[in-house]
Amino acid sequence: MSGTTTAGARLRATGGGANRWVVLFVLCVSLLLVALDATVLHVAVPAVTEDLRPSSTALLWIVDAYPLVCASLLILFGTLGDRVGRRRILLCGYALFGVASAVAALADTPAVLIAARALLGVGGAMIMPATLSLLRAVFPDRRERATAIGIWTAVAAIGAATGPVLGGFLVEHFWWGSVFLINIPLMALILPVGRWLLPESRGSGDGPWDVLGALMAAGGVLGLVLGVKRAGAGADLIGPATLGPLVVGAVLLVLFVRRQRHRAHPLIDMRMFSRPAFTFSVGCIVLAMLALVGLELIAVQYLQLVLGLSPVETGLRLLPLTFAAMAAGATGSYTLARLGPRRMVGGGFVLTAGAVLLLVLMGQNDRPLLLTIGFVLLGFGLQTTLFAAYESMLSEAPADCAGGAAAIGETSYQLGAGMGIALLGSVMNAAYGPGLSGVPGVPAQAAAAAANSLGEAYQVAARLGGAAGDALYTAARHAFVHGLHVTLMVSAGLLLTGALMALRLPRAMDPHTAEQRDEAAEPAPGTPALPAQVAAAPHGHDVCDARVPARRAPAEPAGSGRTPH
Q1: Nearest one of 314, 323, 325, 326 to 352, comparing CA atoms
Q2: Which UniProt keywords are present, listed alphabetically (predicted)?
Q3: Contact between residue 242 and residue 230 where contact means Cβ atoms under 8 Å apart
Q4: Which terminal Cβ of the chain has fewer Cβ within 10 Å, N or C?
Q5: Three-class SS of residue 455?
Q6: Which pLDDT tens digit goes with each residue over 435-453?
């Protein structure tokens, strides 16, 4: 009975004509706010430091509390939405996000701001997987869903890229709290609209929700992301502050996977990873985000510290990347239908690698045309890759598992971003530091301090003054550009690795859903199952197993407009 009920709820909006595109608009607006909040604070950090006077540790937590909490809770809320309703989780996320934004805007101490940022992370974790899983339910037709995912991924890119521009404008004209205050009127509008317009959608709801498993997943992802972020901040890789969270996180995730494999009603059906298209799509998302975030961070430093651009000017220079991402998202459905996932993901990686190699031509002087061409190719290539990878991942997951699959995709996104900062940041530091040793007239202690970052090198050079200061300033700029070139080469190698990984994706776009492919492979009633099918059968009624005949919804009447499951 539950299978019939949930199938009807899951497809309520499917035959709604143009309404599903209005639903997509609402989902994209909410995603835009979450993506903006991930980067909008970056340019406000100096103003926050001047006003609240946080310690160095508190400042790190002000910046990192949001992405850490959001990444760690994606699986928890994604799978909870499969059970209690994705719309319900999304609306709760809207409300919490609005309240937390108000608290953050009016924070008068670092502790209050950290707590507010953590609450924003909880709200973001409720919103992000719910938007993607609702999209999966509202657009059962794969070709329409490809168009919707293209718009969805373009909006995410727009939010992340627009954040620094918007944040810089608000900080220059108002005060740092305004970067949070803009969320409140939008959330106040979108909450009642979403409650009235969005359809409810859930999985089968069989069996109890695995609270312990959800907490294990949250703790595991938190440990990994925290360890990766600390490594990216320059902490000792084998030190307890970095290695401890990494080990604890890895152990918890291994235990989580083992627990899910042995439960009759798991949070996440690990057999999704037996589908090569699903597994390699997730891997491509990690690699694409690893390259994008690491390169964006270094590009921002280059534009501000080497070329001397202001935060607003830096954001404007990055706008070609955003516009190219929008174009890739808008044309993604057309491209995917003609090229297929394999060539689209692989071609996106190759195009991005070519853009990265073109940017190696950047030097001490500003070359606007080169940067614009490089950023356009970078944005188009990476967005093409992310679009096709997300579409393949979501289409390979049964509809009952949409929340869990979306959470896996978003967690991969966050892990890739964290690893990009850590890995490419470490490469940058390793290539930059040696260039500051042996600068004439610069004491060893001053050279060691300058090796921490280009910004700190400028401060040390200003304190030294004279010929020694000038020599250190020049050496630091040259060392940074050299490090940038090395980092770009490493990034190109990672992107080409992603292109090889894409060879495991399907050659053509299969219009059928995962459930339809699985049901087509089932033996006819009364036909003995083959040994391979018996071996693959679940030990119990699996939450995400659309192949169990007892749970299949009755066939819809002809002409109902619904997709049979």
Answers
A1: 325
A2: Antibiotic resistance, Cell membrane, Membrane, Transmembrane, Transmembrane helix, Transport
A3: yes
A4: N
A5: helix
A6: 888 788 888 888 888 887 7
Dist CA 565 CA 553 (whole Å): 7
Q: Is the dihedral of CA 53, 55, 59, 61 positive or negative?
A: negative
Task: Read off the pTM.
Answer: 0.69
User: Under a CB-based contact definition with an 8 Å cutoff, are residues 236 and 207 in contact?
Assistant: no
| C-alpha neighbours within 13 Å on the C-beta side of residue 14 | 20
Residue 355 corresponds to which tokens in the numbers above?
């853009």
Per-residue model confidence as pLDDT tens digits over 280-327: 888 888 888 777 766 776 777 788 788 888 767 777 787 888 788 878
Q: What is the DSSP letter of 265?
A: S
Determine the angle formed by the axes of helices 183-197 and 86-105, rounding to 10 degrees. Answer: 170
- Minimal CA–CA distance to 107: which of 124, 119, 96? 119
The string of DSSP codes covering 174-186 is: S-TTHHHHTHHHH
With a CB cutoff of 8 Å and minimum separation 6, the contacts of 139 are 14, 20, 24, 145, 148
Instruction: Supply 546's token pair.
Output: 């659309």
Handedness of CA 13, 14, 16, 22 (dihedral sign): positive
List, as one string, the DSSP characters of 361-384: T--SS--HHHHHHHHHHHHHHHHH
Q: At 512, which amino acid appears? A: H
Distance of CA 12 to the CA centre of its chain: 28
